[in-house]
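Quick one:
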Amino acid sequence: MIADSEDEDKRLDVFLAENLEKYSRSFLQKLVKDERVLVNGKDRKNRYLLIEGDEVEVQVPEAKPLDLEGENLSLEIIYEDDDVIVVNKPKGMVVHPGSGNWEGTLVNGLLYHCRGNLSSINGVIRPGIVHRIDKDTTGLIMVAKNDEAHRSLQNQLKERTVSRKYHVLTHGIVKENQLEIEAPIGRSPRHPLKMAVVDDGRYAKTHFRVLERYKTATYGEARLETGRTHQIRVHLQYIGYPLVGDPLYAPKKAAFHSKGQMLHAKTLGFIHPKSGENLEFDSPLPEDFLRVKKILEEGSFEKNS
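Output:
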């Protein structure tokens, strides 16, 4: 590929993403880091600024055979066809394999259920995975069964046309009926496992509305406009209302013996990659969420709505 006048001063990774749309930007950035992208015969950094006439050569490695094993796990399939599958993920299940979690993940279960027919865009560790939810977050997740569907869903996320609504229980009483949280999110400079609102973070926006108020807590709905890591958890903690049961962002003592944060991906809507039909799915609140909610409604905590 030859850079032309319109590519002058364009970052190398941006140039690659624009010219090689079949690959994700993160995949292309990794190729650069692995010195598989040469500019005029020399390896460069992702931030390298192109000059007109630069010759860019990309060496894409051969796909490695998938060595993950499918497992016959109990999956709650909400919807499935030849292109996409929507799963209601339970609490405690990791979405894809990684350090310390090579078995029992959603991907392991999907490999067995779909007989390996999942998109390959995200590599051998995350086949089919278009977006993720945390281990202890419950609810709906969409998965692509082929690369064409994956690219369509990925673009919908990029264009912010996917509808993702989460139900939450927060510490404290949110006074506003509706509010918007617009604050950049990046890695916390103080804690390696946490994300935080930081000046040099990535743009993030969350819409929140109150559904019910209790004496010491709020039941609400958070709608994602962007999809940053831990976004809802970080944004609500940032404005002073951390999620009940959140082990990272809430008071350390587990509220009501909850197992992880009270965060449920309740509604998911997107355009079908092939038919163009608008699809929307809803999932009921899980047992642990309902148990804590009932304590707040009928227990020693008076309802304050």
